[in-house]
Amino acid sequence: MRPSLVLAAVALTVAALLPLTLDPAGYLIRVLTVTLLFAAMSQAWNIVGGLANQMSLGHAAFFGIGAYTSTILLVNYGLSPWIGMLAGAALGAAFAALVSVPTMGLRGHYFALATLAFGEVMRVIANSWPSLTGGPAGISVPFAPDSLLMLQFKSTLPYYYLMLAALVLVTAVFVVTKAGALGYRLRAVKENPDAAEVVGVDTARVKTIAAVMSGGIMAALGTAYAQFTFFFDPETVFGLGPISIRVALIAILGGIGTAAGPIVGAFVIIPLEELANSWLSAGTAGLSQLVYGILLMLIILVQPRGLVAPVEALAARWRTRRAR
Amino acid sequence: MVVIQALVDGILIGGVYAVVSIGLTLVFGVMGIVNFAQAEFLMLGMFVGYLAWAWLGLDPLIGSVIAFAVVFALGCVVQHTLIRRVLRAPPVAQIFLTVGLLIVIENAALLGFGSQFRSVTTPYQTSALRLGDLFISVPYLAAFLMSVVSGLALWLFMNRSWYGRAMRATAQDGMAASLMGIDADRMRRIAFGLGVGLTAFGGAVILPYFTVHPTVGAQFVVLMFTVVVLGGLGSVAGAIVGGQAVGIIQSLSAMAFPVQLQNLVLFLVFITVLALRPQGLVGGAR
């Protein structure tokens, strides 16, 4: 068995058993649940950002679409969030396809700029369409008794397992995509788009498929988030800082383009943020964000390949030494 | 008449947008880096102008010179300590380094100045010149004239001085410029300082009609990028045309749409231009 598989199995076992030792309505399990959610979101971003090397700064657009679609369907028609999640994922995927049309030919900075603009467009729309979205005042998920069908629970524990399942699923999608034909095509596009085109890779199609997958998954996670927090507004789900930059930062910190990267990144960033927020009083708003920004710059300057890279290098050295 | 009035306002505001965005385009032109943090330097310029008014009693139009000087110096430091290190790095590093810088500056300002809105009072704040049926707002006009002067000064600097020529040489080919005895690192330092300094200058001259707070930059990010993308990234002449265009689009759309949707119009223009002509409407020449 490959060491990475062993590691994954051990991590999953720990993750599955850990909450049994925690207070099911406590603070710690809430932090872990948010961490798992952001790991999954960052993994979804990784499909576009890591595999296709397209630096999206607009993934909040898909996330918000998912959160609003399921919640609006639930509020207005009483539809189960599971159906809302499917509808949201479909809309998110469709929006990703739509966004792909004008951004297809853009590379590097231009792609980042265009996706940033799309995210902001969605935020502005959500803010200025109160009859549908509740506008800047936000929208609440109507209360329901504990039920799996309505995806609503009083305890945090079920949400923990929901997010864990989501993370495992998204990571599986990422790993399978990376190892499959699509992954090889994406790698070709990433290394050299012109050469990829010459050897017969339909770069536009490959990039669109990656974007659609990523956008659909991100939207489904938006629904999970809405059901978990019960309340959100345009700034929290369509926000540039809270979502778009954060999911990218998590992947970059952990190791962009690797399956472990977003998970490692999320388990460093999210608890760190929580610690900073709980240590610093409300009067020093901005300090945790400041630390956040400094951290981002430090990673870029010191270890641009992420935290996973040195560990992998070490493991590779250990293997070759043992083989000798 | 209403349309002409909107056009006049648009042109006057657009002049400031042009100067603010020239800074962004200058940084890209010389270094090939898109500075996502550029709008934060505008916010810093506004705060320097505000403090110069609050502490020294200086009019923001004079304070703008101080804002330029302070932010120019800060820009040189940022270039030397941060930007310089990612000049040859892949775009992901360049994008996220400046995004990190954006977060740091915004939150440092939040910590330093608090989140409240501040504004200056000037004797000419609400006065307007009357030209027939047209009203020309004095603060708009003053900001516009200051922008024109600074734009001309930059043009003279870039085209008539040794530094300007050396900077353009560095932009064209850093290696060749170095071989000609130009200190390319120093030129890039000055270029970044000039770029963010000009943006800060533009921030200070709009103080008579714009309130300042630590997150004001967010209102300008897409606006500035729209201006430079319209004109072509790296093109100073393009930024001037783009600035006018964005000013006019904004004041015309203000007549048709509620305030929240004005930005939407701008976003759509931005995305359309990016998709159809990422090299800018004015043309590839820079």
UniProtKB/TrEMBL annotation, chain A:
Q: What is its main location?
A: membrane
Subcellular localization, per the record? Cell membrane
Asked if the record carries the keyword Lipid biosynthesis, the reply is no
State the InterPro entries in the record: ABC_transp_permease (IPR001851), LivM-like (IPR043428)
Annotated keywords:
Cell membrane, Membrane, Transmembrane, Transmembrane helix
What are the transmembrane regions? 27-48, 60-77, 83-101, 108-126, 159-177, 247-270, 290-315
Q: Does the keyword Cell membrane apply?
A: yes
Protein's name in the database:
Branched-chain amino acid ABC transporter permease
Task: Tell me what organism the protein belongs to.
Answer: Azospirillum oleiclasticum
From TrEMBL, chain B:
Q: Superkingdom of the source?
A: Bacteria
Name the InterPro entries for this protein. ABC_transp_permease, BCAA_transport_permease
Q: Which UniProt keywords apply?
A: Amino-acid transport, Cell membrane, Membrane, Transmembrane, Transmembrane helix, Transport
User: What kind of membrane protein is this, topologically?
Assistant: Multi-pass membrane protein
User: Any stretches that span the bilayer, and where are they?
Assistant: 12-34, 41-58, 64-83, 95-114, 134-158, 190-210, 216-242, 254-276
Pfam families from the UniProt entry? BPD_transp_2
Localization in the cell: Cell membrane
Q: Does the keyword Cell membrane apply?
A: yes
Please verify whether the record's keywords include Glycoprotein: no
Q: Which family does it belong to?
A: Belongs to the binding-protein-dependent transport system permease family. LivHM subfamily.
Q: Which PANTHER family match?
A: AMINO ACID ABC TRANSPORTER PERMEASE PROTEIN, BRANCHED-CHAIN AMINO ACID TRANSPORT SYSTEM PERMEASE PROTEIN LIVH
Specify the protein name: Branched-chain amino acid ABC transporter permease
